[in-house]
Write a structure and sequence with these properties.
Blueprint (H helix, E strand, L loop, with lengths): L6 H30 L1 H69 L11 E12 L2 E10 L7 E13 L2 E5 L6 E5 L2 E9 L5 E11 L4 E8 L1
Antiparallel strand pairs: 1-2, 2-6, 3-4, 3-5, 3-7, 7-8
């Protein structure tokens, strides 16, 4: 049975029906998304996530700034502490040196006899380590002396070695000596570590070899 509608009209009816069906499908899809809340929730969640990321980045930047400041302050504090510790060590070293000098000069005795132009004051000797003895002495020239004294001094260690009498005058303990008003003499002499030192003798001679001063320290 043939249709009585012309074919253009039939195509128009088909097109209208197809468009109407597509509109119904699109409306159903959009209406379904609205009912499910997917589109609105997704947008809100995206906005919230972006805000949270921005907040976290801001907090991270603040924390990094605080950490950098704390590290800089810590480095400055450490440098200050090290500088103060070095200054304290230097002050302590200076104090000990001044104390040693004070003790040395406090041991000086007034000159006796009055007949000698050269006087020995504060002679002392102490073991620095096994086989090494440290000595120091102050040599003073009387005000009435005509001029500077030029001569030599030598140190002699005496005692026992392996149970036998022992004496030792090390070459390094014989040195030139020049005294204008006073001269502080100090040094270290070596000896066998097993030696028992009982006396330390200082002898000062002039240019001709004459003995001008002598002092023996008994230990």
């Amino acid at each position: 049975m043939r249709s009585h509608f012309p074919w253009p009209l039939r195509w128009a009816v088909y097109a209208l029906a197809l468009g109407f069906s597509a509109s119904i499908a699109l409306w159903a899809f959009e209406f379904g998304k609205t009912l499910a809340g997917l589109d609105r929730d997704a947008k809100e969640e995206l906005v919230n996530l972006r805000a949270e990321v921005a907040t976290l980045r801001n907090d991270r930047d603040k924390a990094q700034s605080v950490a950098n400041t704390a590290e800089s302050l810590l480095k400055t504090e450490r440098a200050t502490e090290e500088r103060l510790a070095a200054q304290l060590r230097q002050v302590e070293s200076d104090r000990l040196a001044l104390q040693a000098d004070l003790g040395f000069f406090e041991r000086l005795l007034p000159a006796t006899g009055g007949g000698e132009a050269l006087a020995v004051r504060g002679f002392q000797a102490d073991p620095a380590s096994p086989g090494h003895w440290r000595y120091q002495v102050l040599v003073m020239l009387a005000a009435r002396a005509a001029g500077p004294f030029n001569g030599r001094y030598d140190i002699t260690l005496s005692g026992t070695l392996d149970g036998k009498p022992w004496s030792h005058s090390p070459p390094e303990a014989a040195q030139a000596l020049v005294v204008k008003q006073y001269a502080r003499v100090e040094g270290v002499v070596d000896c066998p570590p097993q030696a028992v030192v009982k006396t330390v003798q200082l002898r000062i001679t002039d240019a001709s070899g004459g003995v001008r001063a002598m002092q023996t320290l008994r230990l």
